[in-house]
Amino acid sequence: MISKRKGQARRRQPFKPSFGWLRPALAALTVAGSALGLTLMSEWMHDPQAWPVKRVHIEGKFQHLHKAQIRAVAAAPAAAGFFVVDVGDLQARLQALAWVDQVSVRRIWPDELDIQVREQRPVARWGAASFINARAEVFTPDTPVLLDDLPALDGPEGNQLRVLEMHYRLQALLRPLQLDVSAITLTARRAWRLRLNNGLRLEVGRRDPLQRVARFVRVYPAILASGAGELTSVDLRYSNGFAVRWNRAKTTTQQTG
């Protein structure tokens, strides 16, 4: 009886198939499906017909720039589509425009490019055809621009900031005379030459330019009172005085009554 019960206990268990291979197979199919889906989605997002840039918004206060000029630069990059347009490249292209001081470009969902532009604000002319801004940065327009109301500055390359700062200091010194500096030149030998808004030319030289001009300001009324005619130039390079030039041929007499 005991052996019979042991035989019954040893009955074969029913066969159970193994599905251990199914999990990695499903994972592989999932990855393949995801990759395919991502590929199809990427192609769809890169299709300019599916995701076009419908509007280019330009904002800024312009005197020398034109929105049409900015749109022309943005046209080709924007044609690539909303997701494909290279914002950094477009910003660099716009920054290369002479009258652009600063620019930012960003996407606005779902079909717009926003371009913010700050135009250059020249504070003086530089050299023959360039301008200089308040940070002493020089820029040269593609076409000549006449801004004769700006002072004319010039000097060796790398001295822009030095010349601009000298202009501001000289303006302050000449304010009591109600005169302005219309032109400053720093020569290759680092000598200063000035032209005032009344046409008077000053040879200042290399040494102590601010002190020499300050001394000129103090004695300018006496110089005018000492001569007759048009004062054309003053040489300040002397240690104990000035060399003054008059144009007596242009002396005029005013009559009344």
How much of the sequence lies in strands comes to 15-25%
Q: What is the CATH topology assignment of the largest domain?
A: Rossmann fold
Low-confidence stretches: 40-45, 250-257
* Tally of alpha and pi helices: 6
Instruction: Please count the beta strands (DSSP E, at least 2 residues each).
Output: 12
For the sheet with most strands, the description reads: 9 strands, mixed
Mean pLDDT: 84
Q: CATH-wise, what's the superfamily of the largest domain?
A: Cell division protein FtsQ/DivIB
CATH class categorisation of the largest domain:
Alpha Beta
- In helices, the fraction of residues equals 25-40%
- Could you say which overall geometry the principal axes of the C-alpha atoms support? elongated
SSE class: alpha/beta
Order of helices and strands: HHEHHEEEEEEHEEEHEE
Strand order of the largest sheet: 6-5-4-7-8-9-10-11-12
Output the radius of gyration.
Answer: 39 Å
Q: Give the domain tally.
A: 2
CATH architecture of the largest domain: 3-Layer(aba) Sandwich
Kindly report how far apart the N and C termini lie.
Answer: 160 Å
In short:
With 257 residues, this protein is an alpha/beta fold.
Give a description of the structure.
It is a single chain. By secondary structure, the chain is α/β, with parallel strands linked by helices. It has helices spanning 2-9, 22-45, 67-78, 87-95, 160-174, 209-226; strands at 55-59, 100-108, 112-119, 122-126, 130-133, 138-139, 152-154, 181-186, 192-196, 201-205, 230-235, 243-247. It has 2 domains: 55-119, Ubiquitin-like (UB roll) (Roll), CATH 3.10.20.310; 122-250, 3-Layer(aba) Sandwich (Rossmann fold), CATH 3.40.50. It is built from 6 helices and 12 strands. Helix 5 packs parallel to helix 6 (209-226). The longest helix has 24 residues, at 22-45. It is elongated and about 135 Å long. The chain starts with a helix and ends in a 10-residue tail after the last strand. Mean pLDDT is 84; it is low at 40-45 and 250-257.
